[in-house]
Amino acid sequence: MASVKKRPDGKWRARYRDTAGKEHARHFDRKVDGQAWLDQQTAKLVTGSHVAPRTAKTTVGEWCETWLEGYGGNRSSTVRQAEVHLARIKVTFGHLRLDGVRPSHVKTWCAQLAAEGLADSYIYALHARLSQVYSDAVHDGLVAKSPCSSRTSPPMGKQRAYVATTDQVWALHDAMPEHLRAAILLGAFSGLRLAEACGLRVADVDFMRGVVTPAVQYPAEPLKSETSQTAIPIGQALALELSAHVAEWSADGGTVLVDTWGNQLAPWTLERAMRTARAKVPGLSPDFRYHDLRHWFASFLIASGADVKVVQARLRHASAKTTLDTYGHLWPDSDDSTRAAIDSAMTARADYLRTAGGA
Questions:
Q1: Whole domain around residue 128: which residue ranges?
Q2: What is the DSSP string of 92-108?
Q3: Dihedral of CA 189/191/194/195: which sign?
Q4: Tens-place pLDDT, residues 300-312
Q5: Any domain includes 335
């Protein structure tokens, strides 16, 4: 039911009911304006893009707060990351209505973030968060469509892994406090991430078979994906080294890595020890992080002749694309491989002709 009727005060009242049966109305000085508004709302009902006028007044900032409440069921670290992203989003868009943000505004925002010197990967993450927030707003019927799309998305940015030398890795190992040296071994020879290493339990290591199976991350939260729980084979020497470490430092059988008091090692404690130790290693980048041990692990596998599927499996990447995007430059140069293949074919042909001529 839709109509435009004149009220006793001389105003024109346009009203209609949406698909849920809820009535919406507005008042106008002229009948023609009321009819135009009514036609517009009716068209939106027909096309499925209708948003209740009162709901449409919701600002980006208000929706971010509501959205975050529903997002709170995720891991605390995941929620904290979302809070950081939303804080940046609200600085620019918080005061605007949800339906007031245009694709051009999003593109300008990304350009401004780049001008501030933020990394491409971080800008990409902020855009992805804004897109996620708007996608849920569309699903909730707060806005007809999202201003975010592949056309507004900034470049993802590729991480070029920093790879230390083998000597530097061992020097870092020796520079660490004795009870933390096993952490370097876990990062460099099994590729564990920081939170995974600090969360690794003694029960997650099969010392006899030489297998590390990450199951949780610090302090005892589930890993992000099933792929992250893939078992990692380790050599007998490393298994023996870890067994000796556990016998000396982790007598309670809890986590493999512990602090000086025998409690579970916190990631920030390990990173702090890393900062102190890396300063003692000649030539090592002052920005070297625990995660860079994982990069060394990948480079070691590649230098040993492992193909992309093997490296993907050992690093527990969900797809080979992730492996190639991060470590593709470490594989032998394709030009050299092509030249070697062509030279081999030409040499074989020359040998055949000489043999045939000699016959």
A1: 60-139
A2: HHTTSBGGG--HHHHHH
A3: negative
A4: 999 888 999 999 9
A5: no
